[in-house]
């Protein structure tokens, strides 16, 4: 019986193994493929992420810029090698850029949850320089700081990466890096591609913020925001007791303490079919460090500055379908970047030119616009600015349009600040400007006030959808209030010798040619 029982159990095991193998060979029903579905909830270009209720849209552009008579892709020749107006000044600057953005949205019981990310990948030609050490009068061989300089630390694949926007929107809140709520909807571009217009708020590359926007219906909204001031909204708290270098040299050195308070912004907006109206306000804390470095030297008290702006856009005016007028005006006191915005170099203007003054080597123009200035033992003196900018855009037909645009900003120092800079006699002697100009200078006017005027025109051709070619010409004029001659100590880094220079107004221009394919 034991033998029979063993044979039966063995047979059962063999049959079980055999049937299992046969089952493994039988066809199995394939899992259904999840195809990407169009998401029509948020406009064209959105798709559901497979397996989720979240919609995603990929976008961006590829752009090529060629700029004439500038060392920068975004501003004119205002300072440095560009402002030197010599053999270090670029005849052209070239940039190629890819922009990539990712937009996700999910419907919830609290409303839509949105995330948005935008990054740029750029290759830009740079400036040659003499390679002299800061403050050195020794001239090094040309080309020791060769262009392009894209392979420096932080570069990727011999180029540069930038993060423009990275924010979450939920239940009326915006949290992360986005354009400031202070800025008009067109930010730096009322009718232009040139980045450096004065006369209003900017942050086209985004600023960290925490914002709540209330919608009242009929296109009316109110935004209340706290935003980071350290990356784009600090124009300088200049310690005139410390000798600075570069463009701000005559105005001491910037002397910031650590971050203590964000900028507080409020913006009321009316957006309707006829156009748009916006009123913006910002409060900006100026928080300086120590008079002399160590804590025992003391420090000036904080001073809050502020800025106010009005913006107006009028659409579909009688001159043609799609024609637009955009205009804005701004006033600041101790909050200069809300007028002379972050991409404008007009707040640190040191520009050289020709001269007919006997005995002078060349001419030079200064235009410096910090938030405040102070001396040891003194309080911060806030700088006042005001300005406007705007554009008219005319569409000739669906393929061609032309704009005319302009901007103007005035920078004023109070009497105490002028005394700090120009000395008690107003001649520069005994003031921070005297440190730069030397005893042999002959000032007939010492006044740091100045204005910047800009005018330009742009023409665009769009032969096919999302492909645009443009030409943008910008002229800039510096109207300064210094006069006479100074003994300038020279700058080996840009090839400028120590010599006598006349003080005068300056003019510069640039041409931006662009090809851009949006996708």
TrEMBL record:
It is a multi-pass membrane protein. It comes from the Bacteria. Residues 1-23 form the signal peptide. Keywords: Cell outer membrane, Ion transport, Membrane, Porin, Signal, Transmembrane, Transmembrane beta strand, Transport. InterPro entries: Porin_alphabac. The keyword Ion transport applies. It is found in: Cell outer membrane. Its main location: membrane. Belongs to the alphaproteobacteria porin family. Consists of 16-stranded beta-barrel sheets, with large surface-exposed loops, that form a transmembrane pore at the center of each barrel. The pore is partially ocluded by a peptide loop that folds into the pore lumen. Forms passive diffusion pores that allow small molecular weight hydrophilic materials across the outer membrane. This is Porin. It comes from Bradyrhizobium quebecense. The lineage of its organism: Bacteria, Pseudomonadati, Pseudomonadota, Alphaproteobacteria, Hyphomicrobiales.
């Amino acid at each position: 019986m034991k033998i029979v029982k063993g044979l039966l159990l063995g047979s059962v095991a063999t049959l079980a193994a055999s049937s299992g193998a046969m089952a493994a060979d039988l066809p199995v029903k394939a899992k259904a493929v999840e195809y990407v579905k169009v998401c029509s909830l948020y406009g064209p270009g959105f798709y559901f992420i497979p397996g989720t209720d979240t919609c995603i849209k990929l976008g961006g552009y590829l752009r090529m810029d060629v700029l004439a008579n500038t060392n920068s892709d975004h501003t004119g020749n205002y300072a440095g090698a560009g402002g030197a107006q010599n053999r270090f000044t670029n005849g052209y600057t070239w940039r190629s850029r890819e922009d990539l953005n990712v937009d996700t949205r999910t419907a919830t019981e609290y409303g839509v949850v949105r995330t948005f990310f935008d990054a740029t990948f750029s290759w830009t030609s740079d400036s040659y320089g003499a390679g002299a050490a800061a403050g050195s009068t020794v001239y090094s061989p040309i080309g020791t700081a060769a262009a392009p300089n894209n392979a420096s630390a932080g570069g990727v694949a011999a180029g540069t990466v930038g993060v423009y926007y990275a924010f979450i929107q939920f239940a009326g809140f915006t949290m992360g890096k986005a354009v400031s709520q202070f800025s008009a909807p067109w930010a730096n571009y009322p009718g232009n591609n040139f980045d450096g217009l004065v006369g209003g708020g900017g942050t086209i590359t985004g600023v960290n913020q925490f914002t709540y926007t209330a919608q009242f219906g009929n296109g009316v909204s109110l935004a209340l925001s706290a935003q980071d001031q350290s990356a784009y909204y600090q124009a300088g708290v200049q310690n005139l007791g410390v000798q600075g270098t570069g463009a701000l040299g005559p105005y001491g050195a910037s002397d910031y303490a650590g971050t203590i308070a964000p900028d507080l912004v409020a913006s009321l907006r009316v957006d309707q079919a006829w156009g748009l109206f916006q009123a913006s306000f910002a409060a900006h804390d100026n928080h300086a460090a120590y008079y002399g470095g160590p804590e025992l030297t003391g420090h000036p008290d904080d001073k809050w500055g502020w800025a106010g702006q009005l913006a107006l856009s009028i659409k579909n005016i009688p001159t043609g379908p799609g024609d637009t007028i955009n205009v804005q005006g701004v006033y600041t006191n101790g909050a200069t970047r809300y007028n002379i915005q972050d991409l404008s170099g007009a707040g640190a203007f040191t520009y050289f030119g020709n001269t007919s003054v006997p005995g002078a080597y060349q001419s030079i123009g200064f235009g410096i616009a910090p938030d405040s200035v102070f001396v040891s033992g003194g309080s911060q003196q806030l700088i006042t600015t005001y300005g406007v900018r705007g554009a008219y855009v005319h569409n000739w037909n669906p393929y061609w349009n032309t704009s005319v645009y302009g901007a103007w900003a005035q920078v004023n120092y109070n009497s105490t600040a002028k005394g700090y800079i120009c000395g008690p006699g107003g001649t520069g002697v005994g003031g921070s400007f005297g440190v730069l100009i030397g005893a042999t200078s002959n000032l007939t006017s010492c006044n740091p006030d100045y204005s910047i005027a800009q005018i330009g025109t742009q023409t665009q051709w769009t032969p096919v959808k999302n492909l645009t070619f443009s030409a943008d010409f910008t002229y800039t004029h510096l109207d300064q209030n210094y006069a006479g001659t100074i003994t300038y100590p020279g700058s080996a880094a840009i090839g400028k010798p120590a010599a006598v220079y006349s003080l005068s107004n300056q003019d510069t221009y640039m041409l931006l040619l662009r090809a851009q394919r949006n996708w």
